[in-house]
Design a protein that fits this description.
The chain is mostly beta strands. 10% of the residues lie in helices and 15% in strands. The model has no long low-confidence stretch (mean pLDDT 81).
Length: 105
């Protein structure tokens, strides 16, 4: 059997703006939002989390403590969480209807 023969493969449907995507293609969903929690009692302010964040979501304050500066940039990669030697940082996806306790009346 010749695997280079185009007749052995199912042709892919051509997608145009006028035709809906086939049912077997996943629908695009909105980007997720993530919450970054830093546990101050566990953190020794080593700066590893800020060094490893590829999106610069974290920064160090005047005392050298990590702070969440740009949470909206977080992609949920968890590099900060995975490299923290003290398990002092947690990244989790925010549920659609989750409300921040500080925002409640």
């Amino acid at each position: 059997m010749n695997h280079d023969d185009a007749s052995d493969h199912d042709p892919q449907p051509e997608l145009t703006p006028d035709t809906p995507p086939p049912a077997d293609l996943p629908e695009e969903k909105a980007p997720s939002e993530y919450r970054i929690n830093i546990y101050r009692d566990w953190c020794k302010s080593c700066g590893i989390c800020t060094a490893f964040c590829p999106r610069q979501c974290l920064s160090l304050d005047a005392e050298g403590n990590p702070v969440v500066e740009k949470a909206e940039r977080c992609t949920g990669c968890r590099w900060c969480e995975l490299h923290c030697p003290d398990f002092a940082i947690c990244v989790r996806e925010v549920a659609d209807k989750e409300v921040d306790p500080e925002e409640k009346d």
